[in-house]
Write a structure and sequence with these properties.
heterodimer, A: 272 residues, mainly alpha, MetI-like fold, 11 helices, 76% helix, 0% strand, elongated, B: 319 residues
């Protein structure tokens, strides 16, 4: 009974989040850029549940619209990283030899950069924008997906059903994408979920530094950047966007942990 | 052991070279002409076109990309990272001036997290299912989800604004005023330590639980030793070797977190310097900072691997 209610609650929260991302206007009480001059830096009230910022803009609305930006950037970045990283890992693990060495050397080099630093390097090169942050996060995650796909491929390619498929004439591409990839997807999906969580933190961090999403586009990071200036007179300004980030990242982490229990064969074996 | 060492070091060299190539390549793509930046507004005047071309030739900017890379790399190997576009000072001097602050912050966060994580992980493993264990797990899950800069601002709100116990920002060199240095260090170090504490304590707990299931632990207990003694004297030693590897891996996250936390607390380290450099389009400085940190991280990973081989003989024998 408890597990059923827990599942319903999680599903409900997930659907609400999806609603917020796709249709923030349905949930937000005000336009995020509408200025209420009479209510500058006002505390939480019935009219403005989370208070207002230095331009009198409703913080709840800005946080909700900011969710769309942060989640969109993170989602697209992780998707791009998977599209590029997974085939690289599959090819590397399947063919081995010099192909494996070259691909993994490049991945090792990319993994040598702490993620935020890699993002800073790319921002310095390409300029501060949503697109740059998306590219930076994607580039940081490509080697992670490549390594995980490679690890799965090394195990799966030794299985008898792969040997059988090759024996009856399956080509390399078919073996890779019809034989190996579906069986390696479990840990990759787990990684993707956890990657979205980390990507949200990186995006908000970059926007906080002024290197990501630029105002007036609301993003959790640039909201916190502005909030710090008014920390002594408007503490709610600091607490609200951060709470949104925390709750979202926590949700994705818990989802990732739960998926790991179901999809990662090593964890499933340990739990059984 | 020597063969393992050589192999590990040899493996690291191409990685470091590739890192340097990526950093140089990325900066090469950055907008703007370094020669024009150096010349300033005079570069825009048509009558200075020939002078600009001469300056570009002097700086080697007319050479092929690979030649420029090799020239730059040979400079880096002589510790010549060029001069700052903004201040004209040698980049290395600017970085070395800020490095002690970052090293102090990173070291403080690491030490603080380990001092708390080790006993917490052991106690949680020994008292599995207890209130302490449950609270630790809640903390571990929450600790990795909380954005570091938000945590930092919340700590400033509580301890600097409300309670006024600690300063909200700034950095004072240790040898200038140790007491003020430590007062400024507390909040940023705690901010960074929370994430590490969450990761290390959760890992240690899981490893200790696994270790305590081993036969040699059962044997030690059968010989009459108490569980806490067995856990610390036998279990913890083996667990710490695995923690060593995790520490190396988390250093990357820490270096990223340092950049942001230094900004929150106005802690004048190299992270703070990197952000200023990006905002000022000071490409030589950005290039040097990113390169030094990336190479440093690679070297640390090599040290961690070697250290793990020293702690765990099976690693070097299997290799």
């Amino acid at each position: 009974m408890l597990r059923r209610w827990s599942f319903i609650l999680k599903l409900g929260v997930g659907l609400l989040l999806l609603l917020i991302v796709v249709f923030p206007g349905l949930v937000a009480p005000h336009d995020p850029n509408e200025m209420h001059i009479e209510a500058i830096l006002e505390g939480p009230s019935w009219r403005f549940p989370l208070g207002t910022d230095e331009f009198g803009r409703d913080l709840l609305s800005r946080c909700l619209y900011g969710a769309r930006i942060s989640l969109a950037i993170s989602g697209v970045a992780v998707l791009v990283a998977m599209i590029i990283g997974i085939p690289l890992g599959l090819v590397s693990g399947y063919f081995g030899g010099p192909v494996d060495s070259i691909i993994m050397r490049l991945q090792d080099a990319l993994l040598s950069f702490p993620m935020v630093l890699l993002a800073i390097l790319l921002v310095a090169t390409l300029g501060s924008s949503m697109q740059t942050v998306t590219v930076a996060i994607a580039v940081a995650y490509i080697p992670r997906f490549a390594r995980l796909a490679r690890a799965g491929t090394l195990v799966i390619k030794e299985q008898e059903y792969i040997e059988a498929a090759r024996a009856i004439g399956a080509g390399h591409l078919r073996t890779l994408f019809r034989g190996i990839l579906p069986n390696a997807m479990g840990p990759l999906i787990v990684q993707a979920t956890l990657a979205v969580a980390v990507s949200i933190l990186i995006e908000t961090g970059l926007s906080y530094l002024g290197l990501g999403v630029q105002p007036p586009t609301p993003s959790w990071g640039n909201l916190l950047r502005s909030a710090q200036t008014y920390i002594r007179i408007a503490p709610w300004y600091v607490l609200s966007p951060g709470a949104f980030v925390f709750a979202t990242v926590l949700g994705f982490n818990l989802l990732g942990d739960r998926l790991r229990e179901r999809l990662d064969p090593r964890v499933r074996r340990a739990l059984d | 052991m020597a063969r393992f060492l050589v192999r590990r070091l040899v493996h690291g060299v191409p990685t470091v070279l590739l890192v340097s190539f990526l950093v140089f390549g990325a900066m090469h793509l950055a907008p703007g002409d370094p020669a024009a930046l150096l010349m300033g507004q005079a570069a825009a005047r048509p009558e200075n076109a020939a002078a600009l071309e001469r300056l570009r030739a002097e700086m080697g900017l007319d050479k092929p990309f690979l030649v420029q890379y090799v020239t730059w790399l040979s400079g880096v190997l002589r510790l010549d990272f060029g001069t700052s576009n903004r201040s004209g000072l040698p980049v290395l001097d600017l970085i070395l001036g800020r490095l002690p602050a970052t090293l102090e912050l990173v070291a403080a966060a690491f030490i603080l997290s380990l001092l708390l994580a080790v006993p917490a992980g052991v106690i949680a493993a020994l008292r599995r299912g207890s209130m302490f264990d449950r609270l630790l797990m809640i903390f571990a899950v929450g600790g990795v989800a909380v954005p570091g800069f938000w945590l930092g601002m919340t700590l400033i709100l509580l301890f600097a604004v409300q309670l006024q116990w600690l300063p909200s920002s700034g950095y004072v060199p240790f040898f200038e005023d140790p007491v003020r240095n430590l007062r400024h260090l507390i909040l940023p170090a705690v901010t960074l330590a929370v994430y590490l504490l969450a990761v290390f304590s959760r890992f240690l707990r899981a490893e200790m639980i696994e270790t305590l299931r081993q036969d040699y632990i059962r044997t030690a207990l059968a010989k009459g030793l108490s569980m806490p003694v067995v856990a610390i004297r036998h279990g913890l030693r083996n667990t710490l070797t695995s923690l060593w590897t995790i520490m190396g891996m988390e250093l990357g996250s820490l270096l990223g977190g340092v950049v942001i936390v230094e900004q929150v607390f106005g802690w004048s380290g190299i992270g703070w310097l990197a952000v200023q450099a990006v905002n000022n389009q000071d490409y030589p400085l950005v290039q040097a900072i990113v390169l030094m940190i990336a190479v440093g991280f690679t070297v640390i990973n090599i040290v961690v691997d070697i250290g793990y081989a020293l702690l765990n003989p099976r690693v070097r024998v299997d290799s």
